[in-house]
Model the fold of this input.
Amino acid sequence: MPTVHVTDRDGNAHRLHAAEGSVLMEVLRDGDMGIEAICGGQCACATCHCLIDPDWFGKTGARGGDEEDLVSCLDAYDAGRSRLTCQLRVSAELDGLSLTVAPEE
Done:
């Protein structure tokens, strides 16, 4: 089972285990990491915004057009790190993924 290393908004480090194929947003929400996921994973609200560690960003794939439109308007947007976790599926390739929950807007 892949492991995700999460830094929450208070700077605390957490290690979560995630089933392959699960949506990262759900893993973070269920782990009480401060992810609201108001739209339920429809790529419509950006309340699951996270900053992926630069060493991992390239392994998450490219942002889609809707995701890019949403994150690029956020105050905490970082072109090389911003992702919506509703758009990321957990896979063996992401075992060890490191991310920080973005500040609330």
Remarks:
- The mean pLDDT is 96.
